[in-house]
Amino acid sequence: MRSHRRSRLLAPLMLAPLIAGCFASGGGDDSGDGGGGDGARLRVALAFPPAENLSPYGADATLLSRLGVTEGLTALDANGSAAPALAESWRRDGDKVWEFTLRDATFQDGGDVTPAAVADSLTRATDAKPAPAALAGVTLSAKAQGERVVRITTAEPDPVLPLRLSSPSLAVLSGKAYADENRVDPVGHATGPFELTEVNGATSATLDRFDDYWGGRAQASGIDARFIADGTARANALRTGELDIAEAVPVAQAATLDEKTRRDTATTRTTSLLLNASSGTFEDAGLRAAARGAIDTSVFAEDVYEGYADPSAGIYGPAVTWAEGKRTAPVGRAEAEKPGGATVNLATYDNRPELPEVAQVVKQQLEKAGFKVKLTVREYSRLEQDALDGKFDAFVLARNTLLDTGDPVAVLAGDYTCDGGFNIAQLCDRDVDRAVAEAVGIADTAKRQDAAMAAEARILGTDAVVPLVHQRIITGVADSVQGVILDPYERTLVGTGTRR
């Protein structure tokens, strides 16, 4: 059985600009008050409740980074390049060794961020089961060197290591976070501007400002976070003044918000139909081709997303500004077969409220073509493992293709290769693996982009993925709130300069 590690291999050290617009990082780049007064607490609603007990090694890592709790040695800047975070600088020492010089920083439990503590945190991440996304297929060891330097050695040359270490899944935590051998506890043991003080299961969390944050004191005194899967409920709570910030407002609710309170951001998120290529109906490439041919993608951007999206172009959308000029036609597509009433178990989740509507449209189009379709809709945390285990024939997924590191190759390696840890399509194709492997090994930015597009053409040629639409994310922000971080990579939301 293939591993379900979330494998997303990573980017060149310096990427050309990938996205339209820019955003502030959640660290010292926000205009914190450097020790100012006690600002009001922020009331924030997130769309996804914790699915893995706030483990930093899986999907919950992004929850922690969006709330300003965790950070790593590096961060991802607006151009998709590695930027300083807990490491103020780095240098390469030969093909397999990097040295990271730490800034003066403190853990939320009072200890210093030392090279030994960082090396221990990274070592524990390498030993985690399943492995963090950023370390899929990578072997590294970290050791302290002197008072300020962490020396990291990789088994194979890794020219993109600084970018790899920006992943939210490689956040640095203190030794106390690992006291329980059965779980990693980020509560009070991270380094970000806000400290988790209480977590109420999948319902809510309380965070207080961390006054000793290296980037300066946050202007808000804390955060009261609620996990509200229902998008309409998030929008209503913002509208009635119960919330200051609501992420992922449904497009159907956008018009109900005052124009000043809704911010739409072009993102690198693509909604796709994934077809199970290893078992069931769509193990047959001809039936995958039939399904792809049945889908009219033109209806999604304007009808379902009401203009808050762009028509599908491929795995990478228009927010990846260089992609269109390098895109090539899909390679190796099979001829479509007649569905003949073949059954399809289609699934999606309702945390992103447009997805059930997208899935309904897909269902209708497949049925019109001759398939018999059963639709399953659940909350994401109750659906993910079944999807990863290949229990559905088809799955509608909204995926930020550059979430972890800004690398265009990452989503290809993680989602569409035989050993990919987030391979919901269950695709295992020798030509695809070869094309992705070639792209992974290239450090030059332009050549890596070319190789990524060649791999995209191979993947699209299998018809295991049918891109449907490229999303814009609507964030609800109360009039009184300033400094919300509108991040195309969806890693950050609040920082030291976020306040009301």
Provide a descriptive summary of the structure in words.
The protein has 500 residues and is α+β, with helices and mostly antiparallel strands. It contains 12 helices and 17 strands. The strands form 3 sheets. Strands 1, 8, 9, 10, 11, 12, 13, 14, 15, 16 and 17 form an 11-stranded mixed beta sheet that branches. The protein has a 4-stranded antiparallel beta sheet with strand order 4-5-7-6, with helices on one face. Helix 10 runs antiparallel to helix 11 and helix 11 packs antiparallel against helix 12. It starts with 41 loop residues before the first strand and ends in a 23-residue tail after the last strand. The N terminus is likely disordered.
Outline the low-pLDDT stretches.
Answer: 1-36
Q: Roughly what is the average pLDDT, rounded to an integer?
A: 89
C-alpha geometry: globular
Structural class of the secondary structure composition?
alpha+beta
Largest sheet: 11 strands, mixed
Q: What is the ordering of alpha helices and beta strands?
A: EHEEEEHEEHEEEHEHEHHEEHEHEHHHE
